[in-house]
Design a protein that fits this description.
Layout: E1 21-24, E2 31-36, H1 65-76, E3 81-86, H2 88-92, H3 105-108, E4 114-117, H4 130-144, E5 151-155, H5 164-173, E6 177-179, H6 199-202, H7 207-221
Helix pairs in contact: 1-7
């Protein structure tokens, strides 16, 4: 079984709509937007043994990739501001992604200087349509980057999967940074294996995986700080 197939955490209802956009720090400096899915933030869901409200499956909030990266950014620019956007619904409905944009208005109006795109894991695998995905993903980026001045960093899936090459092509054609993560999901040391009873939760990045994701992203982020 491919590691991506072990991600049995449903894309539905990962976070209630009122909480999908959140803000941290109130600095007047560089503004960083993280756009992602359960790896970015997942609300408690007792039925699968996930009892926390941060990036699945970090041991605590400070150890998920957003907050590890945030700490590194603040070490360089202490007055930075952050927005976190949970967009699993967009992944699930990417074929009609334009219909999902309205829920992200607050993230758009954050006017980020740096946009980190961490999406793909919840998109359909067997029937993945690269052409439609590329078109809708471009609309999503343009929605967040309304002034067209933000630096955009795109990552692959944590698990190797169909669509990684599409994301890399999008980045190359648009002069955006690309970060490959697919090797991490193949490494048990990067997952939370054995730490959660639910296989789908345990397949997510543990603390080491989260740290590695954060540092790979930060290698690109720091160029723009």
């Amino acid at each position: 079984m491919a590691q991506i197939d072990k991600n049995t955490v449903a894309a539905d209802n990962q976070l209630e709509e009122s909480k999908r956009i959140s803000f941290e720090e109130d600095g007047n400096g560089i503004r960083v937007l993280f756009v992602g899915n359960s790896i970015t933030r997942h609300a408690p869901k007792e039925s699968i043994g996930w009892l926390y409200d941060w990036g699945m499956a970090a041991s605590e909030k400070e150890n998920d990739y957003v907050h590890v990266a945030k700490k590194e950014i603040l070490n360089i620019t202490p007055n930075a501001a952050f927005c976190v956007c949970q967009a699993a619904d967009w992944e699930k409905n990417y074929r009609n992604g334009e219909n999902e944009l309205e829920q992200f208005v607050k993230a758009r109006d954050f006017n980020a200087d740096i946009i980190v795109m961490r999406l793909l894991e919840n998109c359909e695998q067997k029937e993945f349509d690269a052409e439609i995905f590329e078109e809708e993903y471009g609309k999503l980026i343009n929605f967040f980057n309304k002034k067209q001045t933000a630096k955009v960093i795109i990552s692959s899936s944590f698990w190797k999967r169909v669509g990684d090459d599409t994301l890399e092509s999008i980045a190359q054609r648009n002069n955006m940074d690309f970060v490959y993560l697919g090797d991490l999901g193949e490494d048990a040391n990067m997952r939370a294996d054995g730490l959660f009873e639910h296989e789908g939760v345990a397949a997510h990045p543990g603390d080491v995986g989260m740290y590695t994701i954060a540092m790979r992203l930060f290698e690109k982020i720091k160029k723009y700080l």
